[in-house]
């Protein structure tokens, strides 16, 4: 029988592309990132609040540097499309995130847009706090930017 | 007669609390950060696009870490208040930013909220690109967070 912690470790090894051992603090944050707000307490909501901004900064820096002649309006349109819940949700569904989440409401569907988008944001919040901005950038390049530009 | 570049250097030395010499690349970015969109080309708009997100991440990380028991709703309200154009504009006016700006439209008032807020964002975009996230954090602590929490 696979424990929930083993599922979290399996997912995070794949997501981070890093098979090294995690500290207890790292695992606690990853578990929270994969916990829906219906499970109890507030789940991944605080981490999603942080990760939303981490992703916004990474995406905007990427667009700013890659498109030196685009005006603010064009850059804003591009970033809004990439940062949308719809887009984040598609990426989370591709990563099969929901299958690794703790969810309190059994009626919540595995393709729920908000739950998937918030989990992706929360994962980036947790990665930023545990591994730093450079790792968050590398993963954003891989999962978000290369698929959208 | 003080040249415009000397004014930019004077402002940036004070803003960064750093009297060291700037590279040409740094000075170019600082000049753009202090250029209103009415002056020609698009002025500081692209840097404001970036700096807006840099500040959002710094503010959210600060709120997340300092308030471990606040829910997402409370954190979001706090960050929205700090990130508002009104607040950024007040901070820019306190720093007398407008006096160091190149502005094309002579009717633009020195207390214009959008012009001041965007200049502050653009300055943080330029600081992030030239000095890195840690310096941007230190300056945000000084000018934005300590005045608002």
TrEMBL record, chains A, B:
Query: Per its UniProt record, what Pfam families does this chain match?
Result: Ribonucleas_3_3
The keyword RNA-binding is assigned to this record:
yes
The record ties this protein, via SMART domains, to: RIBOc
Q: Where is the RNase III domain?
A: 12-132
What processes in GO biological process is this protein linked to? regulation of gene expression; RNA processing
- What are the protein's GO molecular function terms? double-stranded RNA binding; ribonuclease III activity
Organism domain of life: Archaea
Say yes or no: keyword Calcium present: no
- Keywords (A to Z) from UniProt: RNA-binding
**What is this protein identified as?**
RNase III domain-containing protein
Q: Which organism is it from?
A: Methanolobus halotolerans
Task: Cite the source lineage.
Answer: Archaea, Methanobacteriati, Methanobacteriota, Stenosarchaea group, Methanomicrobia
């Amino acid at each position: 029988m696979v424990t929930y912690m083993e599922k979290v470790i399996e997912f995070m090894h794949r997501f981070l592309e890093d098979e090294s051992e995690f500290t207890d603090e790292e695992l606690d944050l990853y578990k929270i990132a994969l916990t829906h707000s219906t499970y109890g307490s507030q789940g991944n909501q605080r981490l999603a609040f942080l990760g939303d901004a981490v992703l916004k900064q990474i995406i905007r820096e990427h667009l700013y540097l890659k498109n030196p002649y685009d005006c603010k309006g064009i850059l804003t349109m591009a970033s809004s499309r990439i940062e949308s819940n719809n887009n984040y949700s598609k990426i989370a569904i591709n990563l099969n995130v929901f299958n690794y989440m703790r969810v309190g409401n059994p009626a919540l569907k595995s393709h729920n847009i908000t739950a998937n988008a918030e989990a992706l944001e929360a994962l980036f919040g947790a990665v930023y706090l545990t591994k730093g901005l450079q790792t968050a950038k590398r993963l954003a390049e891989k999962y978000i930017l290369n698929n959208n530009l």
